[in-house]
Amino acid sequence: MKLTRKEKSKLVIEGFITIGLILILYYAAFVIFNRMLMDAPAMIREYWIFGDAIISIRGNQIISVTPFFIIFLTIIAIATIYWRLKRRYKQMQLNHIISELHYIAEGHYEHRITTVFGDDMEKVVDSIHVLVDSTVQAMEEERRIEQSKDELITNVSHDIRTPLTSIIGYLGLIEERRYQNEEELLKYTHTAYTKAKQMKVLVEDLFEYTKVRQTTTPLNLTQFDMVQLLEQLVADFELEAEKRHMEIEVITSYETVQMEADTEKLVRVFNNLISNALKYGKGGKKVYIEVQKTGKEAIISVNNDGAPIPEKSLNQLFDRFYRVEESRSQETGGTGLGLAIAQSIVALHGGYIYASSDDRLTRFVMHLPLKQLAVE
Ligand code: ATP
Ligand code: MG
């Protein structure tokens, strides 16, 4: 650490003061001892064991201090001066660190204490840097969360405003009796009703999304057979697949895949993946669900042929409210929350999900642990 001129002179003054104090102390000790020797020479002599090594006494007077004792006193004096100066130097280092800390605390979070300090002070500086880094990280995380909440509110307000405007519009027409006949009246009420249902779906999805986003959301775990569950689900979707002239089936080499999970939540995930595959696999003929198993996890993929998902959209699919441009314009009526909910549910189970897509196949693959870790 480089000392300022003021600090250097402070150290020099400290040195001189210490030397002065030591000299006064030595002199006082010498005078006291001399006095004692004169007042009670017999008593002192009685206990005079090592005395000759320090002082040569002749008669009742101290004659001289021995060279050995002078060296001893000098060493003690140097050690004391060194100790005091070192203490003062450390204090100065600390003051430097404190003033730099104040500077950082004023909002200069990118500032780093670059002065080189010796040994233990360096450890203090390192710890300060670690602390500052983690504080900055926490602040950034906080800011990110705040920003994403704002985004959420903007998206929700936008998605609610659109159907709400049209509901108000149609109800306004009815209120002002601006319809020609009953048929038109029914048409208006029907549109308002459909839009209101759309809003309900959005609000429900949003509720579900915020619920599964919390890592503390409890899972209602049960033992079940994944193959059987998927076969039931596929049966439920058969009619819809038929309407779209598509085939849907479960493909697996396992008779059963026993596992533990919250089936209600997983069904939500599969419902979305399957309905996505049917809705968005434009020009596709086939949807199939593959079940595989490794030692510890079940790997389930929902696959469909048809139009692929553009490469640049692949890593955004799981963002809330994200919808590929085409599906937006087609008005397929989704909220764009399905995959975000799916990802959170899979994560709650300690698994992960990803998507891949090419001209041949669009796949949503999830890895789920067969057993859930016991929570206390
Ligand atoms: P929601 O599921 O909430 O009703 P959504 O289906 O639009 O609405 P997600 O399920 O999150 O929302 O899907 C997000 C977007 O990803 C979809 O809008 C669609 O553009 C795209 N997508 C999802 N699955 C497929 C698929 N199998 N093939 C092509 N595009 C898909
Ligand atoms: Mg969906």
TrEMBL record:
Lineage of source species: Bacteria, Bacillati, Bacillota, Bacilli, Lactobacillales
Name of the protein: histidine kinase
PANTHER family, A to Z: SENSOR HISTIDINE KINASE CPXA (PTHR45528:SF1)
Single GO MF descriptor: kinase activity
PROSITE patterns linked to this entry: HAMP, HIS_KIN
Domain Histidine kinase residues, every copy: 155-372
Subcellular location: Cell membrane
Origin species: Carnobacterium inhibens
Mode of membrane association: Multi-pass membrane protein
Catalytic activity: ATP + protein L-histidine = ADP + protein N-phospho-L-histidine
Domain HAMP: 88-140
EC nos: 2.7.13.3
Keywords for the protein's UniProt record, in alphabetical order: ATP-binding, Cell membrane, Kinase, Membrane, Nucleotide-binding, Phosphoprotein, Transferase, Transmembrane, Transmembrane helix, Two-component regulatory system
Transmembrane segments: 12-33, 62-83
InterPro entries according to UniProt: HAMP_dom, HATPase_C_sf, HATPase_dom, His_kinase_dom, HisK_dim/P_dom, HisK_dim/P_sf, HssS/ArlS-like, Sig_transdc_His_kin-like_C
Enzyme class at the top of the EC tree: transferase
A Pfam match: HisKA
